[in-house]
Amino acid sequence: QTQIGAFFRSLDSLITLHQRKLDHLKEMKKGLLQKMFPKNGESIPELRFPGFADPWEQRKLGEIAEIVGGGTPNTSVEEYWDGDIDWYTPAELGDRRYVDSSLRKITQAGYDNSSARMLPANRTILFTSRAGIGNTAILCSSACTNQGFQSLVVGDSADVDFIYSLSDDIKRKAEIKASGSTFLEISGKRLTEIEVLAPALVEQVQIGSFFRQLDSLIALHQRKLDHLKQMKKGLLQQMFV
Length: 241
Fold this sequence. Notes:
alpha+beta; three-stranded mixed sheet
């Protein structure tokens, strides 16, 4: 009993340690998002990388990204489904920064016979537009979506990682502009009108890169924590009758 108890006490301590590290990183990210982006009514953030001093400029989302909706092939036509074209639904996004493979896939015939649009890899931020507005993920391989998205295809004048860092701000503004009697939804047209503050491209790239690395670190600790919890669950089953 003593040996088993000591073993699980050590394992629980390790799980608690990783949970604390993860919580600390998430809090640090939250604080940095507040300091590295201008507060309401201001155009200069509290904290900046060296060499940057110019005020940030207000820009409409429609000026820095093309807003692209989705579509669904006829579900009763078998030849439209189980192909090799990724096709995302809002429920798949979760809290991942990147997505690279959808649960369901459509065929070329399904794509040709729907209003779905192919979205380019590494330039697209999937953005849910209904039943949970503003869930986002960066697309790692070309794909299309159903009509529950108004995705942002970021142009050359902006950095995709920087725009992704604005997700919470865009979500908040989209929820205000949303409408609908059955459920709230933001249209592509209204999304293009949302204004965000952005610095010059070179500063965007630095900020985007910084938060990309921070998110990678958070994801690493989350995977370690999940692994330890699964390991404990398996050991509890194997070490007790």
